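Progress report, Aim 2. The chain analyzed during this reporting quarter is listed below.
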Amino acid sequence: MKKRLFLKNNLIITCCLILINQSLLAQTIEDWYVNMPDFLNPTLSKQNRLELLEYHKAHQSNSTVNRIGNQAHLLALDSLNNRILVRNTPSSTFEMKAFKLGNNTTAIGIIRTICAPVCLSNIEFYDTAWNQIPLQFTVPKAIEWITKNDIPTDKVDIQWLKNSLGLSFISLSFSTEGQSIVAKNNTLEFLSDADRKIIAPYVTDKPISFKLKGRTWIREI
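Predicted structure tokens for the chain:
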């Protein structure tokens, strides 16, 4: 009798876990965006976030008024690739995308970008219960955009060039398709006109892309 009861309880627990897992898998980027904790995006309340999506679906508007009285705009919503991009304020954006990690595990990436005036991003990853997870992504430094082989050392001091790019202003974005992060170097905008004129010919403006393989971000060539 006890054995039957034990097996019955185990079966009930297993079924509940399956249903919970299926429920989580059925969620979309819209669900995660609306229901995420407010501390992840304090500029917009849950009601603000819901309004943005509802207005968008009704083809009425892509904007709402945020908590500090500014207009927030829905810039992109891709339900197929589970990605959303919102301009929270005139100088900041919030981007979210869901990533599959295998074994039906989902990670939610969040990029916050502030342009004041040069754009700079930070990135974090969470599980679907909003616990931060160590899906480590290292933001590249500005010196990684230097085209080293093209620099005439008789005209440009390499160490001075590296020092000038020592403070990096890198903005990030999620790829519209696939599981990649794109990094853009904005550091030249921070330099004086004179320094920018000297350095610009030796710094590529091509973004750097990183693809998720397993739980590691691999730079794409």
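The longest helix spans residues 2-26. Residues 11-25 have pLDDT under 50 and may be disordered. These observations will guide the mutagenesis work planned for the next reporting period.
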